[in-house]
Amino acid sequence: MVNDRLRDRFRSDSDIDALPPRSLIKIINIPASAPVSPWWLISRRMIYALALIFVSSAVVYIDRDGYTGVVTFLDAVYYSAVSLSTTGYGDITPVTQSARLVNILVITPMRVIFLILLVGTTLSVLTEESRKTLQIRRWRRHMRNHTVVIGYGTKGRAATTALLADGVPSSQIVVVDSDPEALTHASSRGLVTVQGQATRSDVLKLAGVTRARAVVVAPNQDDTAVLITLSVREIAASATIVASVRESENSHLLRQSGADSVVVSSETAGRMLGLATVSPSVTGMMEDLLSPDEGFSVAERVVGEDEVGGNPRNLEDIVLGVVRSGVLYRVDSSEAETVEPGDRLLYIRRITGGPDTN
Fold first, then answer.
1. Can you give the residue ranges of the RCK N-terminal domain (predicted)?
2. Are the CB atoms for 337 and 344 separated by under 8 Å?
3. Are 50 and 56 in contact (CB under 8 A)?
4. Which of 57, 118, 235, 311 to pair with 68, CA 20 to 30 A apart?
5. What is the pLDDT of residues 207-246, one digit of tens each?
6. Which pLDDT value is given to residue 355?
7. How would you class 260 by CB atoms within 10 Å of its CB: exposed for 0-12, middle for 13-18, buried for 19 or more?
8. What is the pLDDT of residue 12?
């Protein structure tokens, strides 16, 4: 009943996901590649234009008997430059049927392309919207097995920082938020952003939740987190959902809504504060373990072939637990006495300047 009331509270009749890509330009933002120097763009267009003139000159020179006034290759170059630039002095003209056919099928299309190159800068501005439309359509078609971070506040930013530091490409992270400033910050880090209320299933579909590998639910309010988790689980049955709540009494609602893992932010902060009063050094080590881009870090890897059959406590890495068939066993439990094929090891990794490749 609680879940139904929450769903009705945030339900929307409009379906953004059904809009055409052109209408999504202000909703979905895909970071562009590094800007290209304008001098390079001009030089590249000049090279293309010269190439067109050369090809046209070669075609005209090969069929020079079909033109009046074409004797040398320079004459052919002169005719091509005058013709492609639409100057058209008229001192050289095609007179045979074959030469005129070549002008229709070859020279005229080249003239159009040549003009496009000359006004390429203006056309680039005019076609920017079309470029973004094609980019959005291509992204929605090919995005698979990515991670969606819902909510780009303090928790969402920390989650994306951990993902990036752990080797996840920025192109494989999609941020959903309704705050334009937060999305601008996410875009500056190379992340794809979707603007909208994540409590709406159509916004979640825009972010590709139905094809996502994992979804991080990190809004500011617990009731919103419950509704988002419900909506995500409804449209993405196989995605791994990691959710955050402020109060521990709401964690069971998230699990009932479909969250695979729940992090209670208030209790975690409270424990850290308690540890800091008793043993500040322990707090420093815990913060180090939770920072994947420096010092030590808790990581997970597949067990090696030479490690199968051994005791995880005797391995070179400091192993904390064994994940088998999706279940975590502590290293001191009876189930984790022997490493089996397909197991994954939860261990302490030493950061040496780059992400782990295991």
1. 144-264
2. no
3. no
4. 118
5. 999 999 999 999 988 889 999 999 999 999 899 999 988 8
6. 43
7. middle
8. 47
Residue type, position 158, single letter: A
pLDDT level of residue 271 (50, 70, 90 thresholds): low
* Secondary structure of residue 279 in the 3-state scheme: coil
Domains of the chain: 2-30+143-268 (3.40.50.720), 38-122 (1.10.287.70), 295-358 (3.30.70.1450)
Measured between alpha carbons, how far apart are the two ends of the chain, in Å?
Answer: 45
Query: CB neighbours of 236 closer than 8 A, spacing ≥ 6?
Result: 204, 209, 210, 211, 212, 215
H helix or E strand, kind and range, residue 28: strand 28-29
* Angle at which helices 154-165 and 180-188 cross, to 10°: 10
In this prediction, residue 2 has a pLDDT band, given cuts at 50, 70 and 90, of: very low
Q: What are phi and psi of 32, to 5 degrees?
A: -80, 160
CA distance 154 to 242: 16
Among candidates 273, 279, 23, 313, which has minimal Cα distance to 140?
23
289, burial (CB in 10 Å: exposed 0-12, middle 13-18, buried 19+): middle
pLDDT at 354 over 50: no
Q: How high is the pLDDT of residue 13?
A: 44
CA distance 333 to 346: 14
Confirm if 322 and 329 have CB atoms less than 8 A apart: yes
> What's the DSSP call for residue 37?
P
Confidence (pLDDT) at 227: 92
